[in-house]
From TrEMBL:
<dbReference type="InterPro" id="IPR039763">
    <property type="entry name" value="ARMT1"/>
</dbReference>
<keyword id="KW-0489">Methyltransferase</keyword>
<dbReference type="InterPro" id="IPR002791">
    <property type="entry name" value="ARMT1-like_metal-bd"/>
</dbReference>
<feature type="domain" description="Damage-control phosphatase ARMT1-like metal-binding">
    <location>
        <begin position="34"/>
        <end position="284"/>
    </location>
</feature>
<dbReference type="Pfam" id="PF01937">
    <property type="entry name" value="ARMT1-like_dom"/>
</dbReference>
<dbReference type="GO" id="GO:0006974">
    <property type="term" value="P:DNA damage response"/>
</dbReference>
<comment type="similarity">
    <text>Belongs to the damage-control phosphatase family. Sugar phosphate phosphatase III subfamily.</text>
</comment>
<dbReference type="GO" id="GO:0046872">
    <property type="term" value="F:metal ion binding"/>
</dbReference>
<dbReference type="GO" id="GO:0016791">
    <property type="term" value="F:phosphatase activity"/>
</dbReference>
<keyword id="KW-0533">Nickel</keyword>
<dbReference type="GO" id="GO:0051998">
    <property type="term" value="F:protein carboxyl O-methyltransferase activity"/>
</dbReference>
<dbReference type="InterPro" id="IPR036075">
    <property type="entry name" value="ARMT-1-like_metal-bd_sf"/>
</dbReference>
<dbReference type="GO" id="GO:0005634">
    <property type="term" value="C:nucleus"/>
</dbReference>
<dbReference type="GO" id="GO:0032259">
    <property type="term" value="P:methylation"/>
</dbReference>
<keyword id="KW-0808">Transferase</keyword>
<comment type="function">
    <text>Metal-dependent phosphatase that shows phosphatase activity against several substrates, including fructose-1-phosphate and fructose-6-phosphate. Its preference for fructose-1-phosphate, a strong glycating agent that causes DNA damage rather than a canonical yeast metabolite, suggests a damage-control function in hexose phosphate metabolism. Has also been shown to have O-methyltransferase activity that methylates glutamate residues of target proteins to form gamma-glutamyl methyl ester residues. Possibly methylates PCNA, suggesting it is involved in the DNA damage response.</text>
</comment>
<keyword id="KW-0479">Metal-binding</keyword>
Amino acid sequence: MGIAKLANNRRFLLLRNDVIIPLHMIHLLPLTISKNVIERLSGLRYELTTNKPLKPFVDKAPDVEIWNNYLTEEKNNSTTDVNWFGTRWLYAETYAYRRIFEAFQLTPPFAKYDYFKHLKCQQLESSLPSMEVFSNIFKIDLKQKSPHSVKDLFSVFIMLSLWGNQCDLSLSSGAVNETALDYDSLVSQQKTQLLINDLPKVWEYVNSNSEETIDIVLDNSGFEWFTDLYLADFLISNALAKHIRFHVKAIPWFVSDVTSNGFDWMFEFMSHHESLIDLVTKWESYLENVIFKGDLNYRKCVGDRNWDPTYSFVDAIQGLQSLSVLCLRTLKADTVDKNWMINGNSPKAQGL
């Protein structure tokens, strides 16, 4: 428990400071609003560092009942208070992240604010050299024969995805060991450093089953997310899967975990670096059928510009023209109806 206590303290204290700093940089919102969030986070820090009993959640998110029911069960099964250092390490740590989420949920202007975004963006920026190194090593058409067999490449891409897991911002700075990205190093690490190596068995299963869909439950953003995308590309290019389904976190989680915005950030970042443009163009081509819902996503699709009303939607959507796109949105403008904010009676479905 002593080691767990130290690890939890270090993670949480680092996390809390990194969360609060960017809040002071938000000048467009009233001070009282950002102050509410800061006070809740400071209160949470005090509760946890002084080992106070864990509190039920009071926000309106869909998972509140699940969390509170679990806390009730813990209390019923315990002869003492359920507190930070006395309960299970995993539960205590996830509870802390969920309470941070609650602090923002209880302050509506911040309800959808990713309070770890600045750290994830910094991590992505610092990962660029490693991303370029790896993309140069494997600058090949994955569908063609290469000097290495598909089986060998399968192990290499799995190993790369595995080593990418070192980039965890909740424990480190997200640094990447570029010396581990050499092809021969990845092969040799598989033989010498894996404590358990079931890759031959996994390869036999994947190669013989040709799954319709392979699900990848994502962990960290930045370089690890990049390696996961590369792995997905490899699996599809070699007909080891027809579809890849990514699972992301529903809320900002463990600092660096991928959320639904991860696709936007990664692809936009790659599109601004010449060495990665061909790669991101290829990956975007896999997104064959996309449905965008809501006002915000619609505005993103058309660049949030003041287009002439007669301008073609196909032209306005610009970079998405290579995809099969459907945009679903109810109009929100008093030029349509004075009650536009409440009636939602002017929807449209635009596609190409």
